[in-house]
Specification:
Blueprint (H helix, E strand, L loop, with lengths): L17 H7 L2 E6 L1 H4 L8 H16 L3 E6 L2 H8 L9 H24 L5 E6 L2 H4 L1 H16 L3 E6 L13 H12 L3 E6 L20 E3 L3 H7 L11 H12 L4 E6 L5 H6 L6 E4 L1 H13 L1 E4 L2 E6 L19 E4 L5
Parallel strand pairs: 1-2, 1-5, 2-4, 3-4, 5-7, 6-8
Antiparallel strand pairs: 7-8, 9-10, 10-11
Helix pairs in contact: 3-5, 4-5, 8-10, 9-10
Length: 332
């Protein structure tokens, strides 16, 4: 189910399809939920982690920059401490995060080292995004790691987070990273297929939203309640994160991380999960289309939506659109 018409070559819509956007996105923020990285919340699932690492490295080989936002530290820490089935206090959760984060990053480093590369750990709280200097340092750390061909792995610093500076969930963190790094695409991998019109567990007739606009208030009503047993973020937090990421022009893709080669298939343009567009980005594409300059047969042309005098105008994304071109030199 698509909630708005996009990607069609009309005078009112010059934005490319979601498939084209997925193929052309060069900066990805990929967030992987705890349920995908652990075995029922008991221990880290090294096989699943290796699969995600392999996909990320293949994306990098295609020239895509990837920043990974990884959950799983609290679950790993609780397992190491023998608290897998225990209801923990806030202080115990902080201790579990401290123990688990080292285990999580150690597992990633070992997997990456087998492929001849390494990772860099960046732990953040809300304070990193409140202060301009710290925000700049955060962005710089990500950029330098990428230049060194390292994989930045980001997580909330749960060991020291308190109610005043905690982000609460990694969906929100991924959105903030998308903002400061100017990502093209934020991929939220979860154990759900995407956003449905209603809870599919209670409503078998519920339809999945394949495409929509981030910030659409209808999405919040559809998303409903909270997260699962292992993670802290439910579908509603992902909808809020998509709205936040869209402020800097990033599109959001919410899909099931258990789909084989899910990241590679998204890069190829497959229509998996729910794609939420950024209205700010789409407006920019329209504005650029109206003023885009082309050189045709030695003349410079500007695309104009009202008059049709040339059919040779090259369109956005290398697709021909039925725009009018007005010569800037011959007064036509």
């Amino acid at each position: 189910m698509t909630m708005n018409t996009v990607g069609k070559t009309t005078l009112h819509s010059v934005v490319p399809s979601r498939s084209v956007l997925q193929k052309r996105a060069r900066r990805w923020v990929v967030k992987i939920g705890s349920s995908l990285l652990t075995q029922d919340g008991q221990r880290l699932d090294l096989s699943a982690m290796q699969n995600f690492v392999q996909q990320i490295l293949e994306l990098r080989a295609e020239g895509i920059e990837v920043v990974l936002v990884s959950s799983g530290s609290v679950s790993a820490g609780k397992c190491h401490l023998g608290w897998a089935q225990k209801t923990t206090t806030a202080e115990e959760r902080q201790a579990a995060a401290s123990v688990g984060q080292s285990a999580l990053i150690h597992a990633y480093e070992n997997l990456l080292a087998e492929e001849g590369t390494h990772c860099g750990q960046v732990l953040l709280t809300r304070d990193n995004f409140r202060d301009r200097r710290r925000l700049k340092n955060t962005r710089s750390a990500i950029e330098v790691l990428l230049k060194m061909q390292m994989l930045p792995i980001i997580n909330e610093n749960d060991a020291i987070a308190d109610p005043d500076n905690a982000l609460g969930n990694n969906d929100h963190l991924a959105a903030l990273v998308s903002n400061i790094w100017h990502a093209d695409l934020m991929v939220l991998l979860t154990d759900q297929s995407g956003l449905f019109t209603a809870d599919p567990r209670a409503r078998p007739d519920a339809e999945m939203i394949t495409e929509g606009m981030a910030g659409d208030p209808r999405h919040e009503r559809m998303a409903g309640g909270g997260g699962g047993i292992v993670g802290t973020g439910g579908m509603l937090t992902k909808i809020h994160a998509a709205t936040h990421a869209a402020r800097s022009g990033a599109a959001t893709l919410i899909t099931d991380g258990r789909i084989p080669d899910v990241l590679l298939r998204l890069h190829k343009g497959e229509l998996l999960g729910t794609f939420l567009r950024s209205e700010k980005f789409d407006r920019k594409l329209r504005r650029d289309a109206w003023t885009h300059l082309q050189v045709s047969h030695g003349q410079q042309w500007v695309i104009h939506p009202m008059r049709r005098v040339k059919n040779e105008v090259a369109a956005f994304c290398s697709e021909t659109l039925p725009f009018t071109a007005i010569s800037l030199f011959n007064g036509q």
